[in-house]
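quick one before i forget lol
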Amino acid sequence: MINLNRECAYPFLRLGIIGGGQLGRMMASQAKQMGFYVAVLDPTPNSPAGHFADVEIVGDFYDPQKLQELVHASEVVTYDIEHIDAVFLKKISAASGFRIHPAPELLEIIQDKWRQKEIFAQHGIPVPRFQQVDEVDFAACQRFGFPVVQKLRFGGYDGRGVKILSTPDDLVTALPGNSMLEEYVALEKELAVMVARSTHGEMKCYAVVEMQFAAPGNILDILVAPARISESLQRRAQEMAVACVEALQGVGVFGVELFLSQQGQLLVNEIAPRPHNSGHYTIEACATSQFEQHLRAIAGLPLGSTQLLSPAVMLNLLGGPNQSGPPVVEGLAELLAIPGLSFHWYGKAETRPLRKMGHVTILNENIDIALQHARRVKEILKIRA
């Protein structure tokens, strides 16, 4: 019988992961390397994370029976996706004392983009001006001026659930659903910081990185680590990211996204309560990857070094346009000839347009050379069906 109230009995921790996508896959792979038992819950049989799991439970993220089955099979439960049943997890955690990190109460806040912003604003963390609205109409938008950003309070990710309303004519294309409006920030750069906080309150912060997004879809295209900004801005961004995690009293690894405005102002955009696309570079470029750090944090183990061992560029590999079906990768041999490149494939059974199928990380002391290699990757690698 497992004693769920004892401290982590490393290396025999039983880890449950809600979500079997690429984040769960990389988490599960790291967990197996560390000697953990891994159970995964995902709606799709043979999910990417399921390839590495000791047990794969097939079920919906809002199915109480399946969630309870995973929790009972685990000493510590975490997740790789926010769109899960936080209400049920909060209930079972309170009733039975199961360890779920980050806490379901925190997840409830994160799931609502307006509440998330409210918490940060209450703690004095700079954020763009925002307001909850019952209806996205001309009067509401006029309080901000055009252009204005509409964000759905619930369910958005990877650019979904966000709409820029440039003129009053765009109101007819406003997104349906509970929303908030946010001032439009003219950007110099989009930045991100990974922050870890353990069950003991130990905190560590990774380097600030810069993100470049691609249309359509507004999905992260290329990431540069470290960000090409001043040391003072780096320190300020890290301080703000740490303040966000402290405000939430989070346990685990968190991806904090920030705006650097054209006027040089830093503003927090949003936070992800899990490993994040902007932290994939840490697998090769840092002393401790974001996935190992997350496991250390939620298991009550000492946090690892966040030292950046080499500058890096990370590039997402997306499904090609008009391509749906079993994936075929073209150009892999030429890709692997690029010096300093590491290739990650997520094991998804089907490619779709703009679906994240894998990523590459390129290490080079010269960021410009690494960026040249990344542009070469985009030319030679194609994912087709």
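fyi Confidence is low (pLDDT under 50) at residues 1-9.
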